[in-house]
Amino acid sequence: MSPRPRPGVLEVEPYVGGESRAPGGRPPLRLASNENPLGPSPKAVAAYEAAGPELHRYPDGASAELRQALGALHDLDPARIVCGAGSDELIGLLVRAYAGPGDEVLYSAHGFLMYGISAKSAGATPVTAREANLTADVDALLAKVTERTRLLFLANPNNPTGTYLPAAALRRLHAGLPPEVLLVVDAAYAEYVTAPDYEDGRALVTAQDNVVMTRTFSKIYGLAALRLGWAYCPPAVADVLNRVRAPFNVTRTAQVAGLAAVRDQGHVVRSRAHNETWRAWLMENLRGLGVEITPSLGNFLLIQFSDAPGRTAHDALAALKEEGVLLRGMAAYGLPDCLRITVGSEAENRAAVDALRRFLA
Ligand SMILES: *Cc1c(COP(=O)(O)O)cnc(C)c1O
After folding, report:
1. So what's the pLDDT on residue 294?
2. 15 C-beta neighbours (distance < 10 Å), count
3. What are the pLDDT digits (tens) for 77-133?
4. Can you give the CATH number for the domain in which 74 is found?
5. pLDDT per residue over 213-239, tens digit each?
C-alpha cells in the first residue's frame, strides 16, 4: 500500500515546453514558445529591478493596483478581474472549481494542451470536437455537449493553429450552450489581432453569467518569465476564483512589472506592428519554399510538411535544431505533420527561412 493520487492524475501527460537549447552550446534561435522577440517593455524591466529591496514584503494578495489599471485600459470593472500566476493557473483553477470526476471538459481537437491536462488533473474527462480546416467548429462543439459538460474552452485565436472564430460564430457558440456550461474564451493572443470581425469575448462576459475571458502577460507583453495572467469574469465566477486561488498567487515583482507594462502601450503597438510585418514576410517566404502555411492571427505560424521520407516535420525539426533554430513539434496537438514557428526578430526569421531552404533543397 502506498499513497495514490486521485483518478486521472497519472493519465496526465506532463506538459513539455518549447525547446530552449541548441546543440554544441551555441546561442539558439528560440522560435518554439511564442515569446515576444522585442522582449518586455524597458519600463517593466525597470519596475521589476526597482522591486528588489522590497522582496521581504508579501505582495498585495488582491493585485488591486494592477486590476485597476487593467480595468481602465480595457474599460472593465476591476472587481470582476482576477489575476493569476499565468493564465495557466486560472485555467487550472476554473477546471478544479467547476469540474470533477464524472464531468466533461470540452474543447476543439487542436485546442491548447493545458485544457486536457487541467481536466485530467481534476479527475474530469476531456472531450474534443473535430475541427474544420484547422478551425474550431461551432456545430461540432455543440454536438459534443452532454448533461455532464461543465466547461468549454475556446482559445481565440487558437494556439497552435492561429485560426479564429469571428464574433458572430463566438456568439452562436455561446447561444447554443446550456446556461450551466461555463464558456472560457482564452484570448492569450488578442493584442495581436487586427481582424475587424474579431472580438476577445469581453462583451459576452459583461452580458452573460456563464462566460469568462482569460488574458496573459506572457505573449505580447513579453513577460513570460514572471507568470502573470488575468481573467475577466461574471461576479459569481470571480468570487469562486478568489476562494480557490492561493492568497498570494501573484508575486509582487509580477504585479509591479505588469503595471508598468500596462502603462506602456507604445511597446504593445510596436510589438504588434513588428508581428504584422514579419508574420506576412514569413508566410510569403515559407510558402515560397513549398510548404503549406495556415493563415494566423497570432505571433506564430503553423507549417505543414509532406510525408516524403527525409522531408517530414519530424526531420525538419531535427535538421533545424542542428542549425540552432528551435521550432515546436506538434505531435502532442494531434498535428504530427506540422511544426509551429514563432515570429521572431528580423535576424531570426531570415535565419529560420534560410535553414528551412537548405533542408528542403
Ligand atoms: C501561451 C498561452 C497561454 C498563456 O499561458 P500563461 O500561463 O499565461 O503563460 C494561454 N493560452 C494559450 C492558448 C496560449 O497559447
Report:
1. 96
2. 11
3. 999 999 999 999 999 999 999 999 999 999 999 999 999 999 999 999 999 999 999
4. 3.40.640.10
5. 999 999 999 999 999 999 999 999 999
Cell of 58: 508579501
User: Could you tell me the three cell numbers for 46?
Assistant: 525597470
Query: Cell 493564465 appears where?
Result: 87
For residue 302, is it left (φ>0), alpha (ψ between -120 and 50) or beta? beta
Which atom number of ligand 1 is nearest to the Cα of residue 88?
Answer: 7
Residue 91 CA to residue 37 CA, distance in Å, equals 26
What's the gap in Å between 160 CA and the centre of ligand 1?
Answer: 11
How far apart are alpha carbons 184 and 317 in whole angstroms? 32
| Ligand 1 mutation pick, 108, 216, 245, max ligand atoms within 8 A of CB | 216
Cα(300)–Cα(15) distance, integer angstroms = 19
Are the C-beta atoms of residues 57 and 180 closer than 8 Å to each other?
Answer: no
Domain count, the chain: 2
What is the pTM (predicted TM-score) of this model?
0.97
CATH of the domain at 320: 3.90.1150.10
